[in-house]
Structures are given as structure tokens and as C-alpha cells.
Amino acid sequence: MTDEQWPSDLGPVVCVVGARPNFMKMAPILRAFGAHRPALPTLLLHTGQHYDKDMNDRLFADLRLPRPDINLEVGSATHAVQTAEVMKRFEPVLDSQRPSCVLVVGDVNSTLACALVCAKKDVPVVHVEAGLRSHDRAMPEEINRVLTDQIADRLYTTERSALANLTREGVAEERVCFVGNVMIDSLLANREFAQAPAKTLQIAGGDPAVIDDASGYGVVTLHRPSNVDRSDTLQALLAVLREVSDGLPLVFAMHPRTRANIERFGLGELLRSPRIVLLPPQGYLEMLGLLASAKLVLSDSGGLQEESTALGVPCLTIRENTERPITIEQGTNTLVGADPQAIRRGVDEILSGAGKSGRIPEFWDGRAAERIAADLSAWLLARHAQRVG
Predict the structure, then answer these.
(1) pTM above 0.85, yes or no
(2) Which is catalytic among the residues 79, 223, 255, 384?
(3) Which of 292, 339, 355, 389 has its CA 20 to 30 A from that of 189?
(4) pLDDT digits (tens, 9 = 90+) for 197-206
(5) Number of Cα atoms under 13 Å in the Cβ half of residue 194
(6) Hey, how many other C-beta atoms are within 10 angstroms of the C-beta on 272?
(7) pLDDT tens by residue, 245-274
């Protein structure tokens, strides 16, 4: 074997994506696998958990992500049904492709489902973004994270505190490798392609003049059931957003779940303001442009906590906990929960210049995927040598 060759009897790395956050993490990984020497053969599998075709197509184009080799097309369902359907459709793929390992990212249902099938079929599991914990077992994502990490053979972490979580749960330290954050790889690689906020508003039918205010503007996203599925909680949050907009224009990229609940609960009047621009779900480059130029972010998203830290934009996270503590300890993130008073206080601090400036965490440097490629290649080749030697 030369330095440029991969063993012909060592199968591909099956790389699994299922929902929007996975795409941002997988794009730099696939590029790094192709650029590594020897290149790691890959097969991209989309479970179809994220089932908005237009948004899927847009994200793949924005991220320069190759089209999936396989799409399981599972679509939407309850957590149990969706997880079971992914498992049922994924098992034949393992039988036909005989991969060297299966690489999963993040904490969506597809992540756990594919990892479970691998555990039953004795196929190595590689988990990117391992060890993150909110310590809130009411979150389905937390269950997915914990169980996937128990199954995984190789675990790649985004921050050093993740190792303590894993060792506390009995994961051997030698299975864990700190590589940094591949979400930031995507952000840094795509920042030059980000769409100007005024253009995003114009295309969506909004008034770009709203965000031309000298004070800037804020970006809002809400989608978590704890915030949007109860009428009283959602009403209180929309009311405080209306108040915030009096002092700072807001661009609200609205999740379909949130929009449906606003209509169901009859709360639309709270958002009828010339200083609140309502947008449909946005593509990656559109959101990146909005975030990069924002004065602040109000969100319950995990990914936006990281992206705002990388961009140096203060973020108020509308959750009681976070699985990304480094964004609070070193970054620009502050937890405010769904408490209107805490939200008002946080916004006032930021607008007065007292918001967090933060710093860039270790290994959030755009090279996390390169480190994964180097480590995974060495790990797979060493396992292969033991088997054939």
C-alpha cells in the first residue's frame, strides 16, 4: 500500500445526516475526508428525518454538500416511530455496504437510531459532538446524546468539559478525542458567501429599511416545545419580544411549529408591528448573514449559541439549561429562560454596551474536521492492521 491508497478490503465510512444541524457539521467532514491522504472513502446517507425538500435542497447547495448516496426518506413521525423507521431502513444498508464504520453527528433521532443498529450488527460507531450534556432528561436530544455516547467506539468532542461528562458515565478516556467544533468549520468556510441581511428581507417580502436603524437589529428564533407548545408560555414570550422591538427592531425567522402554534392559540396580533419582520425558515447563508450583522440574538437553538459566540454577537438563550456551557463560560451566551423580566434585563444590558464580548474557544479554528480525518484514518488503519496481521 502506498501513502495514497486505502485498503481495498476496508469499507467506506457511512456518514449519516438526518436534520438541518447535521448538514452544517457533515459538510466540512466530507471535505476533510476527501482531502486527507489517503482519502477516506465515504458514503453519505440521509435518513430523511428533515423532510422539507426545498429547504434540504437549499442547504445542500449553500454548504456545497454532495447529494446523498442513499436517502431513507423516513419523514416526520413521533419520536418512537421515527427512530424505529430509521432503524428498519438502515439495517439493509449495513448489510449491503459493509462499512468500516458509521459516523453520526449531533443528537437527533437519526443519530441514535443508526448507532443502535450498528451496535446490534457489530459495526463501529463514530460520534462527532460527543459528551455535550444539558443534564435535562426531559429533552429527547439529551437521551439521544447519552445513549449514542455509550454505544460509540470513537468519540470526538467540541470542548474539553465534555470529557468529564463522558468519564462520569463510564466511557473510557482512550475512546475520546478532543478536536474542536465542526459547526465553526462551516461558519468560517462560508462567511464570505453569507447573504446581506437587506437582500434576505427583500427576497422574503420584508422591508429592509426596518434594519437600517442606527441601533441595529436583533435576530429571533424559537422552536423548542417547552417554549412554543403552551399557550401561556408562548404568549408571554411574544409579548416581551413586542416590548423589545420598541427599542430594537427584530428579525424573527419562524419555525413551522412556532407559526402553527401562534395561529392555533390566536397570538398573531402580538407580532403585528412594523418593527418586527417575520421570515419563513431561512437557508444557511441567509441566517449567517443575519447573525453576523446582528446586535443580539434571542433564541432557544443550540447551534445559534455556538455561532453567535464564534461571531462575537451577544446571545440570550431562552432555555433553563444548555449542553454547550463553553458558550457561557467563554463565549457571548447568557441563559435567560422564558422569564420576561430576565429577557428584558438581558436586552437592556446589551443595548447599554454591557453585553458579553466573549472569546473564541480552543480549537474553534476551522480545522476540527481535519483533526477528525487524521485521527479517524489512523484509528481505522490500525484496527485493520490488527485484523489482517
Answers:
(1) yes
(2) 223
(3) 355
(4) 999 999 998 8
(5) 18
(6) 9
(7) 999 999 999 999 999 999 999 999 999 999
